[in-house]
Amino acid sequence: MTVPRLALFDLDHTLLPLDSDYQWADFLARTGRAGDPVEARRRNDDLMERYNRGELTAEQAAEFMLGLLAAHTPYDLAAWHEEFMAEVIRPAITPAAIELVDRHLRAGDLCAVVTATNSFVTAPIARAFGVPHLVATDPEYAAGRHTGRILGTPSFREGKVVRVRDWLAGMDLKLADFAESFFYSDSVNDVPLLEQVTRPIATNPSPTLRAIAQRQGWEVIDLFDHTQDAKS
């Protein structure tokens, strides 16, 4: 069997010029769906600042972000996410990002979005890009509601490597099976997975990742400028 190439894409600030997790929480706050909007925005900003400093854990992020899901019914969340896609996400999708993904899809590559942001927020975004597979932090779901907890290993830092390996193993594949494997990311948090592929590509990289890429001789591409809730 001929194994195709593997193409993995981070999402926030890589395919999108924004952070979908941050923007989802902000959307809920400004539309009155996140309890105290002032407090929700304060916590949202605090999480982003801690992420930028490299001090945020997946569990700390989940306490707030997945708590927003647990506070509402799946019916309401689905309806609000449709608004979110129309108002925030679709206008932010650029032709350059679509072309990058399409180039791999047309080549027959095995493609996946690999993101730390939870799968509730990101599954519709991955579909909008036409990417058939998603490796994301999974929110726990029980008795018809989100619980506010993470299910399994979060897709964050070294956890992305674990989750990608598990996903491939489900297809009886491993990273070493691919003669060429790509990972596109903007963030220094993704260095563990960037180091595992044959073609690490720093995409719209933060200053920290750009410096690492230059030292390592990794390819650097810029699809757009950082304009919203920039990450380091």
From TrEMBL:
Pathway: Amino-acid biosynthesis; L-histidine biosynthesis; L-histidine from 5-phospho-alpha-D-ribose 1-diphosphate: step 8/9
Enzymatic reactions: L-histidinol phosphate + H2O = L-histidinol + phosphate
Keywords: Hydrolase, Magnesium, Metal-binding
GO MF annotations, alphabetized: histidinol-phosphatase activity; metal ion binding
Matches recorded under Pfam families: HAD (PF12710)
EC number: 3.1.3.15
Keyword Hydrolase: yes
InterPro entries: HAD-like_SerB, HAD-like_sf, HAD_hydro_SerB1, HAD_sf
TM region positions: none
Top-level taxon in the UniProt lineage: Bacteria
Family according to the record: Belongs to the HAD-like hydrolase superfamily. SerB family.
Function, as annotated: Catalyzes the dephosphorylation of histidinol-phosphate to histidinol, the direct precursor of histidine.
UniProt name for this protein: Histidinol-phosphatase
Lineage, top ranks: Bacteria, Pseudomonadati, Pseudomonadota, Betaproteobacteria, Burkholderiales
